[in-house]
Amino acid sequence: MRILITGRNGQVGDALTQTLRGIGEIIAVDRSQLDLTNPDAVRTAIRELQPAIVINAAAYTAVDAAEADQAMAFRINADAPRVLAEETERLGATLIHYSTDYVFDGSKDGAWLEDDAPAPLSVYGRSKLAGEQAIADVGGAHLILRTSWVYGLRGKNFLLTMLKLAETRDALSIVDDQIGAPTWRMTIAEATASIIRDAGEPAQLAALSGIYHLCADGYTSWFGFAQAIFADASVANKPRLQPITTADYPTPAQRPKNSIMNTDKFRRTFGDLPAWNDALAACLQLRTTH
Ligand SMILES: NC(=O)c1ccc[n+]([C@@H]2O[C@H](COP(=O)([O-])OP(=O)(O)OC[C@H]3O[C@@H](n4cnc5c(N)ncnc54)[C@H](OP(=O)(O)O)[C@@H]3O)[C@@H](O)[C@H]2O)c1
């Protein structure tokens, strides 16, 4: 079973490239090998490689920069997924694509369900929603896995930002009025691997087409996430943490207040997901052994 992974140098793309080894013939490409802003190159690559599964881990993920770079965000997050969907459909293959909690406006009292109405607050959120809709419009076999607050020991993320800031700062002010589920990139990769492994045949995957919420169990605020990071025994620098509000920390892009996603559909279909703080401990443990 040939599996094509885009965005191999990203947090999730790299985790997938490690985790899927042994499941199939993995062809993982980075931006220099397959630029998603070039639809002809994407079409040619998929027609030549003829994968059974395409996993799109590439995305325009700079949430604040997207506010001033709308055209590029839509090219990568909406136009490219449409081309990937058209080409996988043409082959009878399955597209696995990642999306985001930022498709929601955060106003719900309770966890977001897959079929709750999306209403993104940012260009990034709108571009990712347009990607979801493009894939569904094409109508081929697809799994859209919405995740949230992705972190790990690689790339740009909140965990690494906190650890870096703590090298030089005694105190940090962290937003406490946005809540969501921090999700370790390895959780996403392992869940994706088990989806593929358990399906056995790519045709089985096609029958499971749709949107699923894939994030860690439980929730916290960014402040709570920072507290958990610095409470870990393996983290030496422990700055004082001050909770602040979103209004105290203005950013170009507006973010949802409540990003918590209900994962019951994922669990019923594919199995359990770890608690966010257990996954964080496992991630930090890895840091001490590397
Ligand atoms: N990060 C989060 O907190 C978060 C939250 C919710 C959902 N998600 C979703 O989860 C998925 C994976 O995100 P991530 O955190 O792994 O993102 P990431 O670390 O930013 O990786 C994205 C990858 O996409 C590649 N890329 C960007 N433009 C490209 C292009 N034109 N052609 C080919 N590749 C291109 C980047 O390449 P370069 O390395 O060359 O820049 C990078 O390797 C995305 O769909 C994202 O929207 C992420």
Give the integer mean of the pLDDT values: 96
Q: How can the largest sheet be summarized?
A: 6 strands, parallel
Structural class: alpha/beta
Strand content: 15-25%
Task: Give unreliable regions as ranges.
Answer: none
The helix content is: 40-55%
Helix-strand blueprint:
Elements: E1 2-6, H1 11-19, E2 25-29, H2 39-49, E3 53-56, H3 70-91, E4 94-100, H4 123-138, E5 141-147, E6 150-151, H5 158-168, E7 171-175, E8 179-180, E9 183-184, H6 185-199, H7 202-206, E10 210-213, E11 220-221, H8 222-231, E12 240-244, H9 264-270, H10 276-289
Parallel strand pairs: 1-2, 1-3, 3-4, 4-5, 5-10, 6-9, 7-12
Antiparallel strand pairs: 8-11
The chain binds NADP nicotinamide-adenine-dinucleotide phosphate (NAP).
Task: Jot down its keywords.
290 residues; alpha/beta; 6-stranded parallel sheet; two-stranded parallel sheet; 10 helices; 12 strands; globular; binds NADP nicotinamide-adenine-dinucleotide phosphate
Q: Could you characterize what this model shows?
A:
This protein is of the alpha/beta class and 290 residues long. The chain has ten helices and twelve strands. It has helices at residues 11-19, 39-49, 70-91, 123-138, 158-168, 185-199, 202-206, 222-231, 264-270, 276-289; strands spanning 2-6, 25-29, 53-56, 94-100, 141-147, 150-151, 171-175, 179-180, 183-184, 210-213, 220-221, 240-244. It has a six-stranded parallel β-sheet with strand order 2-1-3-4-5-10, sandwiched between helices. A two-stranded parallel sheet has the order 6-9. A two-stranded parallel sheet has the order 7-12. Strand 4 (94-100), helix 4 and strand 5 (141-147) form a beta-alpha-beta unit. Helix 1 packs across helix 6 (185-199) and helix 2 (39-49) packs parallel to helix 3 (70-91). The longest helix is centred in the N-terminal third of the chain and has 22 residues, at 70-91. It is globular and about 55 Å long.
